Amino acid sequence: MLRDKNLVSLSRQHQHALALCVRIERAFRAGRANVSDLQEEIGRQFEGEIRAHFEAEEKILFPAAAKFGLLTKLVEELLGEHQTLRRCLRRAAVGKLDSPAVQGLAQTLSSHIRKEERQLFEELQKLMPAAQMAEIGSAVEDYLRSSGAGAVCALPKPGKAPAG
Fold this sequence. Notes:
Elements: H1 8-29, H2 35-66, H3 72-93, H4 99-127, H5 130-147
Helix pairs in contact: 1-2, 1-4, 2-3, 2-4, 2-5, 3-4
């Protein structure tokens, strides 16, 4: 299903985070993973975009979605995943993860994003009236803009070769 324009900013940020997951996966597969560099990149993306993204979902999108009984359990799952991911992302940001944990974080984050895109967003687009979707989209945009995460795409530092 085509993504509703009011969810595009969140989907764009999902793409950024998925790109990070792919870079991590490729680095490990190629045997060139520098865990320290990967954790630094994870930390930049967490601070630059993911933190505000989670907050926007938790404060705006999830409460609206949970009002649809069909989505209540899914929203609870996603909130639990945010807690787990937030802990791992914070640990990565301060260099506290080992190789398996970095790989696990990438897999967990990727799976979480796909669940939001394929289940939550798809169902919201079917269930939520257009006017409400527009209100949600506007509130999310405002939140992301005010947090400075509206147009951020975390890339490796200039001059530093990508980890994968």
